[in-house]
Specification:
mainly alpha, 13 helices, 2 strands, disordered N terminus
């Protein structure tokens, strides 16, 4: 039987996510895991267990980032903010380590381009606007080509590479319900397909990033409890501030413990 012509965002959430953990809770957990990971990376590199625990952070952030891209009303403002923070923090990290790199915010900035182009293509296609469908098909191809260029050919070491860039796009890849799809296309978007595609994406990231990244698959245990709701409080600003703030804190502690490191930078 065909699906209803239009489903509200609330209906889609109820049909897909039926857990008890809000987006805010998952992002707070992701922040905790990331903090632990970076303690291991910056201060205690020999304590491998810290890096193992930290593998849970990226999947949670990637999933919640994809959801945020879908629901935000100020898309390009969101993109500009993430890209700006990414450029500043990546520049500092590149200077400190002597290697040109793009951190996770650069990764998600590239993800934005793919997600927004894919969303625009779906809207145009299901509205049967031929010219816009062609335009946004080209836009999606251009976004993918740009991501490949940056991740593969630019020499920039982007966190989690091309697989990491494409990972958030898997969350809503088969969501045709929100675009007034009918029939078989509606049936493709289920809890099983959402989490299966995301898990496959995580596996691809792990295979390309190293054995320790396989522990990121454990984050699926938390994600299946996602409720589809943001949470009671608006905490977006906190999450944006946390990334540069915790890096600055850990970097400051590192310089206190290793003052000679400053001499190697100049």
């Amino acid at each position: 039987m065909p699906c209803a012509p239009t489903l509200s965002a609330e209906t889609v959430r109820e049909n897909i996510y039926r857990g008890c953990l809000s987006g805010n809770v998952l992002k707070v957990l992701a922040c905790i895991f990331m903090f632990i990971d970076h303690i291991g990376m910056i201060l205690l590199p020999d304590v491998v267990v810290l890096r193992v625990v930290g593998r849970l952070a990226m999947p949670l952030f990637a999933f919640m980032f994809a959801e945020g891209c879908f629901y935000t009303r100020r898309r390009w403002r969101r993109f500009a903010l993430i890209l700006g923070l990414g450029l500043v923090t990546s520049a500092v990290m590149s200077f400190a380590e002597g290697v040109a790199q793009g951190n996770i915010l650069i990764t998600f900035s590239l993800s934005c381009l793919v997600i927004y182009a894919l969303d625009a293509l779906k809207r145009a296609a299901f509205a049967r606007e031929r010219e816009r469908t062609v335009i946004f098909s080209l836009a999606l191809a251009a976004a993918l080509a740009f991501c490949v260029g940056v991740c593969v050919f630019s020499g920039l070491r982007v966190d989690y590479g091309l697989a990491g860039v494409l990972l958030p796009a898997t969350v809503r890849l088969l969501d045709f319900r929100s675009y007034s799809a009918k029939g078989t296309l509606c049936a493709l978007y289920t809890p099983v397909t959402v989490f299966l595609l995301f898990a496959i994406g995580l596996l691809a990231v792990a295979l390309l990033s190293g054995t320790i990244q396989l522990f990121s698959l454990l984050a699926m245990v938390l994600l299946v409890f996602y409720s589809g709701e943001r949470g009671k409080y608006r905490m977006k600003a906190l999450f944006y501030v946390f990334y540069p703030a915790h890096l600055a804190l850990l970097g400051g502690i590192y310089l206190i413990l290793h003052p000679a490191f400053l001499a190697t930078l100049f």
